[in-house]
Amino acid sequence: MVELFVICETRDVQEEEVRGFTLARLDDAGAVRPWPILVTRKGGKYFGYENACPHEGTRLDTRPGEFMDEEGNFIACGKHGAMFDLDSGHCFIGPCQGKALVPLALIVDDGDLCLADPRLTDEDGLDIPDPGEHPEVLITPD
Ligand code: FES
């Protein structure tokens, strides 16, 4: 049985929000490689994609954590402006029109969003900031 790898809690992804995560995955030679992904929610369903534009293969967020067009309706590539549907990853405008983001088979398990890819590993040795992470605010008494 394949172990589930928890990405985040389901409540961490709001309706029509896009969050980015950098996971770590083993390549064919067994080396640990960063694997940027994004997850979103539409109509109460969760969708995940590799964070790689089908046009040039680069990350969609040229500014960390910025994944959407100005109106906040679609996933957008910050480099050349391609736009993708949240629920299909299909590109409907831009240099990769007609192509699609690589989908991930997300599994919802007891309030967690998970993947079942056996190549996933803990991020040991990879000190990569999570672009979707907000700085923690520490409230201290006066
Ligand atoms: S790299 Fe994304 S639209 Fe060109």
UniProtKB/TrEMBL annotation:
Residues annotated as domain Rieske: 36-115
Signal peptide residue numbers: none
Region described as Disordered: 122-142
Assigned keywords, A-Z: 2Fe-2S, Iron, Iron-sulfur, Metal-binding
GO molecular function: 2 iron, 2 sulfur cluster binding; metal ion binding
SUPFAM superfamilies (UniProt xref): ISP domain
CDD domains linked to this entry: Rieske
Protein name: (2Fe-2S)-binding protein
Organism: Sphingomonas hengshuiensis
Taxonomic lineage of the native organism: Bacteria, Pseudomonadati, Pseudomonadota, Alphaproteobacteria, Sphingomonadales
